[in-house]
Structure formats: structure tokens, C-alpha cells
Amino acid sequence: MSEIDKVAEIDAHKAEDIHPAAKPFLFLGEEKVKRGFIVLPFVGMIITIILGMIYPLKHPAPWEVFPGSWAVFGFIAYSLIVFAAKPLFKLLARDETYYGEGGLPDPFYSTEHTHEGEH
Predict the structure, then answer these.
(1) What torsion, rounded to 10 degrees, do the Cα atoms 10, 31, 34, 20 define?
(2) Closest Cα partner for 26 from 34, 2, 59?
(3) Deepest of 2, 38, 45, 90, by most Cβ within 10 A of its Cβ?
(4) Residue 56 CB neighbours (<10 A)
(5) TM spans, by residue (predicted)?
(6) Which of 73, 34, 1 has the alpha carbon at shortest distance from 64?
(7) Cβ pair 13, 29 in contact under 8 A
(8) Which of 67, 41, 74, 33 lies closest to 52, judged by CA?
(9) What predicted TM-score, i.e. pTM, was given to this entire model?
(10) Integer distance in angstroms from the first to the last C-alpha of the chain?
(11) Which segments of 1-119 does DSSP mark as H helices, in order?
(12) For 51-108, what is each residue's pLDDT tens digit?
């Protein structure tokens, strides 16, 4: 870690422009956390499989004879959601000018400032 990164990390916890509720979560921006974050879903999947073997359901589904079947089911469902993102975006996305040009009619609430310094 370079000196600049060390100074930036120390200053981030003391910075006044960072909301106090956000300061406990600054560790999520560290490189070690970013690289190791992929481990969390795999650990959760392994724990779920082990718990499924220890505490079986009273009325299991027919496919539950295979250990880890719900993990596979969840992976397939997640994959479908990821692959559906692009077609859904094309279906739901709108052009920048879809809602028209200009701000709201009331100048007090308008998002466009016609005169500098005026709200």
C-alpha cells in the first residue's frame, strides 16, 4: 500500500464530508475485502447444503433426494435473473426525452434554473 493510500485511508475516517452512519462501513472499500467478497456466497451455499443434510424437511420435494438440490435450484434461478437483465432493460428502458423537456411548471420546484442565483 502506498503512502497516498495510507493517508487517504486514515483521513477517510476523520473526513467531515462523510456521513457518520457511513464511517463504520468504510472497511468495505478495502482491497482485501473486495477480493475476498466472492467467498461469502460459497460459504453460505456450503452451510445451506450441510444444514439440509442435518435437518431434512418432513415432506421433501421429489428432487431433494440429491444433496444440494436447492443450491443448484438457487444457482439456476439467479442465472436466469442475470441473463434476463439485458432483455428486460431493452423492454423497459426509455429514451432520455421520453418524459419531455424542461422542468416542472412551478419555478420554485423546477429542476432547471433560468436565472443564476434564483431558486
Answers:
(1) 10
(2) 34
(3) 45
(4) 9
(5) 37-57, 69-89
(6) 73
(7) no
(8) 67
(9) 0.37
(10) 45
(11) 3-14, 31-36, 39-54, 69-92
(12) 988 987 788 788 888 888 888 999 999 999 999 999 999 999 888 777 766 655 666 6
Residue 45 burial (CB < 10 Å; 0-12/13-18/19+)? Answer: middle
pLDDT at 20: 84
Q: Cα(37)–Cα(116) distance, rounded to whole angstroms?
A: 46
Distance CA 112, CA 119 (A): 9
CA distance 62 to 64: 6
> To which residue does cell 431558486 refer?
119
Name the grid cell of 10. Answer: 486514515
Write the CB contacts of 25 (distance below 8 Å, at least 6 apart in sequence).
Answer: none
| 104 touches 110 (CB < 8 A) | yes
pLDDT, tens digit (0-9, with 9 covering 90-100), for 29-65: 888 888 888 888 889 989 988 998 898 778 878 888 8
**CB-based contact 60:69 (threshold 8 Å):** no
Amino acid at 27: F
